[in-house]
Amino acid sequence: MNEKNENQKKKEFKISRRDFLKKGLMAGVGVALTGSGIVSAFDAFAQGGEKIKVLGPDGNVMSVDKSHLKEIGLKTEEEMQESGREGIDGKRFVMVIDLSKCRNARKCMSACQHAHQLKPEQHHINVLRMDRAGDTSPFFMPKPCQHCENPSCTKVCPVDATFKRKDGIVLIDNERCIGCRFCIAACPYSARIFNWADPKDKEKYEDVEYNIELNVPQKKGTVSKCVFSANRLREGKLPYCASACPNGVYWFGDANEDAVTNGTTKETVSFSNLLKNNAAYTLLPELGTKPSVYYLPEKDRLFPFEYKGQSDMEDNSHSV
Amino acid sequence: MTYFNKIKIASLVFILLTIYSANTYAQWNVPSELKKAPAEASYELVKKGKVVYKNNCASCHGTPGQGDNLAAINATDLGSKAFQKNNSDELVFWKVGEGNGGMPSFKESISDEDKWNLSFYIKSFDDKFIISGEKIKAVEANLELTIDDKTKTLNAKITVNEEAKEDVEVQFYIKRTFGNMLIATATSDNNGIASYIMTKEYPGDKEGNFELLVKFKDTDSFGKKEINKTLKWGTELQFENITDKRETWGANDRVPLWILLSYLIVVLSVWSVILYVVVQLIRLKNVGK
Amino acid sequence: MPEIKNKDTKKSLSTIVTDLTRPLKNHYGLTPWMFFLLSVMGVGIASYIYQLQNGLAVTSMRDYVSWGLYISSFIFFIATALVGMLISAVLGLIGIKWITPIARIAEMIALGFVMWAGLIIIFDMGRPDRILNIFLHGRLQSPIVWDLTVVTTYVAISMLLYLLPLIPDMPFLKRVMSDQPKWKQTIYKLLSFGFVGRPEQYKLIKKLTRILAILIIPVALAIHTVTSWLFAMTPRIGWDSTIFGPYYVTGAFVAGGAAVVIAMFAFSVDFRLKKYITEYHFDKMGKLLVLLMLVYLYFNINEFMVPGYKMKAGEDHHILTLFTGAYAKMFWWVQLGGLIIPIILLLFKRMRKPIPSLIIAIAIIIGAFFKRFIITIPTLMHPHLPIQNVPAEFHTYWPSGVEWAVTMMAVSGAILIITILAKLFPVMPIWEIAHEEGISNEEINEFIENGDINDEEKTS
Predict the structure, then answer these.
(1) Is-contact B95 B87, C-beta < 8 A?
(2) A56 with A42: CB under 8 angstroms?
(3) Structure-model confidence comparison of residues A135 and A1, the more confident one
(4) How far apart are CA A95 and CA A254, in angstroms?
(5) Is the pLDDT score of C425 beyond 90?
(6) Per-domain residue ranges of chain B
(7) Who contacts C37 (Cβ-Cβ below 8 Å, separation ≥6)?
(8) Is residue C274 part of a domain?
(9) Contacts of B287 by beta carbon, 8 Å cutoff, 6+ apart
């Protein structure tokens, strides 16, 4: 009952704000300028009354008084857009994936899907079963977005909806995406997905302020992708996938600091030494995309490759 | 119920409890005769075993007795009563070497000596397990740091009750975004000084600063004293904002000039011809009048 | 067999005017035809509204095959539209005479298809409500922005290129259509731009047409080259090709040429214009098609022979899917039924007669459509990394009912534009045909002033 009332309030607020903006647009620039004045006056007047829905630090939807956002360290959608498009100064984020450790526990996939409001068939990170040649041993390969230095996807976007930030992360703004899916066609790593229908738990996330660094709420008709958990990096936390891994597969860090931290053991080592000492490589280097994700070869594995299929989504119709 | 049947049942329970797992959990086929430990368990060996545990086992099994083991992949809490009751140090030694289902075999990757130390450490959570020697008592050691910027030398002085302490290992870390990176370990001399000369260049921030962290390696014995210090010894970060460059992958206000110019020249020239035709067309009425 | 000749009988101006304006007045068969087109479009509109409500999930497209029938149709439409440039510009500029009666038909096809090509892109968008973002946040680095620019430009030039040669026909229409509803007469008056048959006016029209005919050549090459870049600018197996630009352009000529043959047949029969679109024209178009198809075949050999010989990793999968795999039937239809067999058949004079030409042209058009389909879909099915951990439907693609309905709406819409143009304006330039029959401008002006219109013909 209480919740219902609250919903009602939110809806009312939403309608008034939307209508206001619409009218402001229609009336032209002059009126819009006056309009923004009225909005702020309205803000001051309605202190304590205006509730907006935002994502809390733990990813839960919470209803917050707009005027109290600052106090609890949260940002408005506009502020999130601004800092989200800018990126974090001085950083160049990199990931190193140790294939010798991956045994298909899929904790990374489920943590990611949980954090980013994804359906079971939607993968920002996907653990693939790979085989280099017929007579070599197959292995598991987690594949997030490669956050390329020369990204094919952001090149072709017609509206700057997907873009590369100064810290190297490739983000997608699903408030701007027009859904042309050119970036999906351009990405050689198949790292992008599309919201063909309404996203998961649409009702729960209705009217929630959009967090571009988390890409939640997801929206119908827009592209979604791995964002290196940009929201967590701001707090100095490792990405969801890296933190969830039980097997020490993921190293994540800042190449400018020459340090990467293991998501499982929390051990921090030199990024350049890790690459040098382990014959690291990148995926499809011949395409010149220059990924920020590095792989360590699948040698010296402590376990056999075992795969028995894990859901009805499996089949083996196509493998490399 | 026999000893082995209990293990079988325990394994079965694990299978039933599993939500999903990459591997089916097989039961242990324990041989009738197990290897005996070459030496007696001592506190010194247990301490060594703890290091082996941290590096190889903790990621799945967590800290014994804390319940932070990963149940989803069937990793047992090794501090639990049930485990301790059913596993002798000989059996733990054998299991580590063998591996089972989700657990890899450490036969080659951990030496026998370390495997024994490891099993002593794991068994140290069993009250009934006998450990010889004296239990190492923790002392609150003091740590002081003197820095010589010229020679890039770090001198850590360790004292216990204002007396220099010899043979204490001190670790030097650089603080990084997601964790502390170990750069060196030094042992104190008879003056109680553990010194380290930084010969390698480490990246700092834009001013060349980085944050140093010094602490005891064996925090169990010497306490958790830490020293944080900002040093200007790093290489200055030359941060190049890649989004400032005009690139094909850049934002709309960073369009490469060759694209911008080609686009404008082509569009303007074509449309000016179209405009010319339209203007001429409007004037058609008066032509030849 | 005797040589097929262009002209056998000399036509009088009054006959020409009567023949060409007859369908504009007394063609009642057009009403059910337009009703049919509109009802197909109605189904398409309903399907599109359904798609808007439920998202692109109602199509068969999924994360891997994320472009499907819509984008294939888009390329097909752009391809078909390219023929306007070939016939009215290239052939016109090099002084080929036999195109006079079919140049306007080609231009109508170009207009109808290019306009709907632009709309198909919108049908394919996940968020058509945000279309203005292209103007607010447009990135000049994106081939989509280039494509939109060049499509708009091509529409503008095609419209002018259709309109300009129409202006000298307006005085005829004003005179002949005086018994028609007022709105039609207003259109004729407005579109005459004050043309009254002065020699200087004829001169200006010819000059402007010539300017546009030159201008449209690079623009038309650009429109299809840029469309090919939507694919070739990506590092994907099967698209990552340097010859995609010319490959698309030559393919477009084939598709457009076949469309013109079909339209020629339809108009010559249905509008009773066999005197104007004669066997001679079908013969010429047949020969032209052979030439175009040979060039296209050459590009096809290059595009498939080279990777097929090397069988590089990744490309081998793609090539085998086309040659022997899931898309083999379509692929060989395109190569054999849409290219090689038509080339061989059209080498025979007998096959270049109207009815055989029509059948061959239909086969070519179907091949052209399949070709666009197998350019788009198989590549998306063979990404560099394996497709795993997704439902079975993500691995395959066949268009859903909604996609077919929306695509058929676009086809009907394009044909509707052509039909409306054919109903409002003559499908051939009266004045140019009169000039070719040796009728002078003075005679034309005299006829418009007080010429006699054959009443018997008019009512038939």
Answers:
(1) yes
(2) no
(3) A135
(4) 9
(5) yes
(6) 3-123, 147-231, 250-286
(7) C412, C413, C415, C416, C419
(8) yes
(9) C198, C200, C201, C204
Q: Which domain holds residue C126?
A: 19-282+398-443
The domains spanning B3-123 and B147-231 adopt the same CATH topology: no
CA angle C267, C270, C276 (to 5 degrees): 50
User: What architecture (CATH level 2) is domain B3-123?
Assistant: Orthogonal Bundle (1.10)
Q: The domain that contains C217 carries what CATH number?
A: 1.20.1630
| Angstroms from B203 CA to nearest CA on chain A | 6
Burial A192-210 (b: 16+ CB within 10 A, else e): bbbbbeebbeeeebeebbb
> How buried is A317 (Cβ within 10 angstroms: 0-12 exposed, 13-18 middle, 19+ buried)?
exposed
Domain B147-231: what homologous superfamily? Carboxypeptidase-like, regulatory domain (2.60.40.1120)
* Residue C428 included in any domain: yes
The 10 Å CB-count burial string (b at 16+, else e) for A138-156 is ebbbbbbbbbbbebbbbbb
For residue C212, being part of any structural domain is answered with yes
Q: What pLDDT sits at residue A318?
A: 40
CB contact under 8 A, B243 and A266: no
Cβ of C160 and B271 within 8 Å? no
Shortest Cα–Cα distance, C193 to chain B (Å) = 6
Which domains occur in chain A, in start order? 2-74 (no CATH), 93-296 (3.30.70.20)
* Mean pLDDT of the A140-160 span: 96
In whole angstroms, give the CA distance from residue C279 to residue B53.
91
Q: Shortest Cα distance from A180 to chain C (angstroms)?
A: 5
- Flag whether residue A180 sits within 8 Å of chain C, measured between CB atoms: yes
ipTM of the complex: 0.90
Q: What is the pLDDT of residue B11?
A: 53
Distance CA C30, CA C178 (A): 21
In this prediction, residues B147-175 reach a mean pLDDT of: 92
Q: Look at residue C260 and tell me if it is in a domain.
A: yes
Chain B neighbors of C204, CB-CB under 8 A:
280, 284, 287
- Average of per-residue pLDDT across B124-149: 85
The answer to whether A254 contacts B177, with C-beta atoms less than 8 Å apart, is yes
Nearest beta carbon to residue A220 from set C55, C137, C382: C55
Report helix, strand or coil for A295: strand
- Count how many domains chain C has: 1
Cis peptide before A217 (omega within 30 of 0): yes
Distance of alpha carbon B106 from alpha carbon B83, whole angstroms: 20
**Burial of C344 from C-beta contacts in 10 A (0-12 / 13-18 / 19+):** exposed
Chain A positions in Cβ-Cβ contact with residue C121 (cut-off 8 Å): 180
From chain C, pick out residues whose CB is under 8 angstroms from the CB of B252.
137-141
Answer whether B287 touches C (CB < 8 Å): yes
Phi-psi domain of A179 (left: phi exceeds 0; alpha: psi -120 through 50; beta: other): left
Indicate the range of B53-67, B155-169, C130-144 predicted with least confidence: B53-67
| Interacting residues of C172 by C-beta distance below 8 A, sequence separation 6+ | C17, C21, C426, C430, C431, C448
What CA dihedral angle connects C155, C157, C161 and C162, to 10 degrees? 20
Mean pLDDT for chain B overall: 85
